[in-house]
Amino acid sequence: MTEDRGQRTEGRGQKSDDRRQMTDDRRQMTEGRGQMTDSRIRKSECGMQKIEG
To answer: What is the mean pLDDT of the chain?
Structure first.
């Protein structure tokens, strides 16, 4: 019984680690989206310059 309990607690620790990794992946995704929006803004700025020219 005690051994089973130890394994269960270890499994819980792994679950918490997986959740941390998921949050990190989400942060990276949000950062990637920010970069995409920045590139879009730059493209729009280039288009404005073309119209002005």
So the answer is: 80
